[in-house]
Please model this.
Amino acid sequence: MGKKKQEMSQVYNSNNEFIFGEKGGKGKNLSTFLKNLSLTTSPSQPQSEFNEANSNIYGSLSYSNPNTNEISRSNPSLARRASPKRSLSGPTNMSFAHSLTPTASEALRTNSPTRTKRVVSAKYADLDDDWDANFDDARVDTDMPSVRREGFGNTFLDPSPMLDSLYPDLTIPAGTKEPVKDSIDLEDMKIKLEINKLNQLNTKFLKFKALLTQSSNINLQELRKLSWNGIPSNLRAISWQILLGYLPTNKSRQSATLKIKRQEYLDGINSSSLNLNRDKQIYHQIKIDVKRTNPTVKLYGHPEVQKSLRKILYFWAIRHPASGYVQGINDLVTPFFQIFLTNYIWQLQPLLNDPQLFNYNLHNLDPTQISSRVLSIIEADTYWCLSRLLETITDNYIHQQPGILKQVSDLKNLISKIDIDLIHHFEQENIEFLQFAFRWMNCLLMRELSIDLIIRMWDTYLSESPLGFSNFHIYVCAAFLIKFSSDLKQKDFQEIILFLQNPPTSHWTDKDIELMLSEAFIWSSLYKNASAHLR
Amino acid sequence: MVDNTDDYSYDYEYLYKIVLIGDSGVGKSNLLSRFTRDEFNLDSRSTIGVEFATRTLEIDGKRVKAQIWDTAGQERYRAITSAYYRGAVGALIVYDISKTESYESVSRWLKELKEHADANIVIELVGNKSDLDHLRAVPTDEAKNFANENSLLFTEASALNSDNVDLSFHQLLKNIYEMISKHQLETDDQPSAKPSSGATISLTPVPQEKKSKNNANCC
Model:
């Protein structure tokens, strides 16, 4: 049980860091926080079930045996190499700072514009109420360590220098009650907002967790509904796998299915026919494309990762001769690969009890630390999920790419209903939709948006039924184009092409994506029934 | 043209559409970025479909704008990319001097052009990555002979160190200019190319309403 508790500590580590570390911490906030904490850590029963669910993802490899020694034995290379890292990465408090990143970005993620407003107003009612009520709790300093232990798990048992230095801070405001001033303190409001965001995040997490764990048969409809608005990053891997139909909703079948699928992949990869009669042309194309896949992300520069991607892509190409490998599929494989890879690292955390594991991200992870056995599992999951995705857009990659041509023409028809002026301007400038939208369809906007944004977008695509990569994507592309409509109307042929070749999205956040997805949703609802004459 | 000099898009007398073709990974996109922006990107991603860039330069005292369409090298994209051949007055077939296969594909690319492009398109063969001389797999003479036999212009260039990049584009544009001047003199009474839609770009300058004026200018 103690081990399972730590599952939650992922979320709280970050909360703690943010409130106490960065903002200096005030008693009020602490108490509010602790109150929330005690609320959220109480349901221990679902947590164990949650771990069960996760155990199905990585099967016997990580969860089937609760004995940590067993883990290090079954996966010696990772266990062995994980520990020396501790000394390499400097003081422990560094790790807290790092662990903030996923949560902070998620805070943004859950925060759609309309919701923010609601949060602000709710905050006043809520937190001011809590203020006095919580004060007494905060003053009981002697309770602190036990709460801390319970809430944060064993990871924090050794008091880090940072936490120690924060103790005085926590007690100071207890003596100086200034409730009125506090409510108009900007810093304070910011902190409250942060707490609210994190709480919201937490509520979301709990909803997902409940859905994924509390029944022997996961309600797919419900999961789609929740996921449409974004999936908590530490539950993304399992959610994606279920949404794609790779992981069965019936939990009793999950382990067995994964086992079979992973074995099937391994057998396929190792089959002599695959390796002896290698199609040189396809392999060469994959090889040069993998080398230039996400070239700015360090992870994809590692030879081990490139080897994995080559294997996945080549195997897929051989098994799907009608399309074979087409440039751009190398982009589509990356979200799966990195989600499953990071998820694996996260899954190790409660087992190895190594806070350093949270330090790993795509920029500092050394894939040589991962055993080939684990890599092959990540490869297999990636392969099957990629296959599911591509099944829905097969026509995009077969001879003459008819799927893309149809999507592009659908997009044009859609825009003519939404923004006829833009169509007229394009016609006047001799702009063809194919000139810019081909790539949007071929790479699902992965060349136009950063991978983090794409991952958020896929939460929604995967929640659509049928999957959103074919039809819903057109509406997203429409929303994307309309976003720049007024700019584009001022431009001539050359300016339009150059603009759309490199659209200004580098500053985009999840908020922009969510707005775009909402617009796409509205249009898809509006025009769905009219689709007959779209075509 | 004088009254339009403040608008850069009108600041040219000729617009030539050029296509950049050749096997995947030979360095087409970097040749283009070297020529149009003097940039070389080691971290470039593969080209999907078609990408576009322009540069205006002076040929025989005339402002010539090269509108260059950079195509994806993979076979699967042929249906999409070959649509861009239409209306092109010049083509660069690029191979990698260190990769025999990419040179062996040149005749296939030539055939593509014969099938889809205008008959009088000016073609230049470019052996890229000349900086990799120590890994050379295609002898210069062999490629040069092939170019001669097929009436192609020829250069070896390096997008990496800029060697001959400007020269190869310049040479192509100059030949196009000469070909078109000659052609226009011969067929002076014929109406010029029709206003085109989409990928097809006429030989005469855009915008179309300026056409008659420009024609008067140059002939």
Observations:
- Chain A touches chain B through 36 residues (CB under 8 Å).
- Residues 1-50, 59-177 of chain A have pLDDT under 50 and may be disordered.
